[in-house]
Amino acid sequence: MLSWREVFKKVLRYIFFDNNCSYCHKELDRDGYICYTCLKKLKENSSLKNKDNFFYVYIYDKAIRQIISDYKLRNRKTMVNDLAYLIEKPLKELIEKENIDVVIPVPVSKNRELERGFNQIDYLLSTLQITYKKIERVKDTKHMYSLDSYKKREKNIKNAFKTELNLKNKKILIVDDIVTSGATINEISKEIKSNNEGVEIVIFSIAISKHFI
Predict the structure, then answer these.
(1) DSSP state of 148
(2) Closest residue by Cα to residue 55 from 143, 173, 194
(3) What are the DSSP calls for 8-20, one per residue?
(4) Which end of the chain has fewer CB atoms surrounding its CB within 10 Å, N or C?
């Protein structure tokens, strides 16, 4: 039986927040923001996939886009627990298999972090108890989804990152939520390699655009 506090919490959420599954949009039947049926379906398809050292779990389709958007932008921060459940095994397997030395999350700008209240990838890695090192985002760029070509995205993200980390001869895993064109990852890789010799870079994202593969 639920305690009065749990009941009160559920009532508040139902009144003030959307109580529908981020995946199928039906009314939720569990805590979190993905229903039992959809969570089971997503878990069954959560194997690690690879395209030219870009490792990922899901294709970036409409449903996955909604889940990631809800997590980042719609006050559904606790969705981190469902995302951690879905990607923990493939991500940790990748770190072990590739003998990763350093994990680096893609940073967001200070303004973007203030808007959202958190960095979604930092928070996910912390939830998974994965140690990481941070690089700095020194340029407040436009949203990449608003740009319709790789050249525009490349120009938008140019010189956006800075790091003074000593990563010489390290194998690095860059972690992001979505890879669409690869422009952000390429710019981060360029910055890391400009200051460090002998680095090897591997990419992991929750989802990847079908156009990318």
Answers:
(1) -
(2) 173
(3) HHHHHHHHHS--B
(4) N
Measure the CA–CA gap between 68 and 85, rounded to whole angstroms.
14
In 99-170, DSSP assigns E strands to: 102-105, 136-137, 161-162
Report the alpha-carbon distance of residue 162 to residue 27 in Å, rounded. Answer: 44
CB 103 within 8 A of CB 135: no
Tens of pLDDT, residues 32-51? 899 999 999 999 999 999 98
Task: Please give the Cα distance from 196 to 184 (Å, whole number).
Answer: 19
- pLDDT digit string (tens) for 174-203? 999 999 888 889 999 999 999 899 999 999
Would you say 199 and 193 are in contact if contact means Cβ atoms under 8 Å apart? yes
For residues 174 and 204, the answer to whether their CB atoms sit within 8 Å is yes
> What does the block give as tokens for 179?
């890879």
Q: Which of 140, 11, 22 lies closest to 75, judged by CA?
A: 22
DSSP string, 69-94: HHHHHSS-GGGHHHHHHHHHHHHHHH
Side-chain-facing half-sphere of 34: CA atoms under 13 Å: 25
